[in-house]
Design brief:
Blueprint (H helix, E strand, L loop, with lengths): L3 E9 L4 E3 H5 L6 H8 L3 E3 L7 H16 L8 E5 L10 H9 L5 E5 L5 H14 L6 E8 L9 H4 L4 E10 L5 E9 L7 E2 L11 H5 L6 E2 L1 H22 L9 E4 L4 H10 L11 H4 L6 H11 L8 E8 L3 E8 L1
Parallel strand pairs: 4-5, 4-6, 11-12
Antiparallel strand pairs: 1-7, 2-3, 6-7, 8-13, 9-10, 12-13
Helix pairs in contact: 3-4, 8-9
The structure holds coenzyme A (COA).
Length: 326
């Protein structure tokens, strides 16, 4: 089996910032409530002409350049998203065309906020077994397009963005040490977009009833998240014979500062070893972890040999974790 590492990372965030004060003007909320309950101050929102594939393509170009890989050298493109440009073709195929990655297989992956880690796990299998050499994994969302801006329970939480990584063979003993994925379909009802699929096709009525927007039971998702973040991280660590004491840096899904703090507490990790950027981006679903990873790298947060743990959870319900020896 070959060792698999991250060869390059990139990110793309829309320019437009929407602060909590901006939201106060459109929905019954306030800055103090949002900051104290979530830790979010502002988020980026895509304009009307920007779709998920646009952000994905820009993030991917940067990741490819940093990995020193041409688009033609890609064997596969996985786009993890719940906000594809359209139902089909896959956003990954649109990105493939944008990049000119003509030798790459391409598909979208639906695992909500855990999607990026699901994608990394799949790419890891293909590369370590020698089937493929270079795989682009993108986590990208334009959640603003499926948000009800009159629903204060959801519209204050989310933001738009994309993060990309190029995975490939790396020196033995470094790179991905383990991955762990899980799901609990029983909890799917707590986070949904009810209409627009085969169960409830789009009609004038579904639009009038706001059924094409995110619906969430925040407190159920919160309880699940607090429990699963620590457990999932421990599971991945155990799979590579490491313990919580071996974590040098944690890059968690960025949903709520209270969820992240309690996960850090369960893992007995000081917050200095945890990357947090939800204050400026909110929850970008599948894009949260790759964007955080790209920023953490840019800020020199990891040293060679560090054990970096990525952990996420989301709709499905789903969760995932991954240990990387940097
Ligand atoms: N502004 C002001 N008040 C708000 C509000 C907002 N944006 N959103 C909700 N409220 C109100 C509620 O209506 C409720 O009022 P009530 O007591 O009169 O009914 C009150 O604030 C408290 O709501 P509660 O649900 O107890 O708040 P909370 O502390 O649980 O925080 C969330 C709510 C959504 C921030 C929190 O549950 C959460 O983060 N859940 C996880 C969400 C998530 O991560 N989703 C994505 C998963 S990938």
């Amino acid at each position: 089996m070959r060792s698999v590492g991250i060869l390059g990372t990139g990110r793309c965030l829309p320019e437009k910032e929407v602060s909590n004060y901006d939201l106060e003007k459109i929905v019954d909320t306030n800055h103090e409530w949002i900051v104290s309950r979530t830790g979010i101050y502002t988020r980026r929102i895509a304009d009307d002409n920007t779709a998920t594939s646009d952000l994905s393509t820009e993030a991917a170009k940067i990741a490819l350049e940093r990995a020193n890989i041409t688009a033609e050298e890609l064997d596969m493109i996985i786009v993890a998203t719940v906000t594809p440009d359209m139902n089909f073709p896959a956003t990954a195929c649109i990105v493939q065309s944008n990049l000119g990655a003509k030798n790459a297989a391409a598909f979208d992956l639906s695992a909500a906020c855990s999607g990026f880690l699901y994608g990394v796990s799949m790419a890891n299998q293909f590369i370590k077994t020698g089937v493929y050499d270079h795989i682009l994994v993108i986590g990208a969302e334009t959640l603003s397009k499926i948000m009800n801006w009159n629903d204060r329970n959801t519209c204050v939480l989310f933001g738009d963005g994309a993060g990309a990584v190029v995975l490939g063979p790396t020196e033995e003993g470094s790179g991905i040490l383990s991955t762990h994925l899980g799901a609990d379909g029983e909890g799917g009802k707590f986070l949904t977009l009810p209409a627009g699929g085969s169960r409830m096709p789009a009609t004038v009525q579904t639009v009038e009833d706001n059924l094409h927007y995110i619906k969430m039971d925040g407190s159920e998702v919160f309880k699940f998240a607090v429990r699963i973040m620590g457990n999932a991280a421990k599971k991945a660590l155990k799979l590579c014979d490491l313990g919580v004491e071996d974590i040098d840096y944690l890059v968690p899904h960025q949903a709520n500062i209270r969820i992240i703090s309690s996960a850090a507490k369960r893992l007995k990790l000081p917050m200095e070893k945890v990357y947090v950027n939800l204050d400026v981006y909110g929850n970008m679903s599948s894009a949260s972890i790759p964007v955080a990873l790209d920023e953490a790298l840019e800020k020199g947060k990891f040293k060679k040999g560090d054990n970096v743990v990525l952990v996420g959870f989301g709709g499905g319900l789903t969760w995932g974790s991954c240990v990387i020896k940097w």
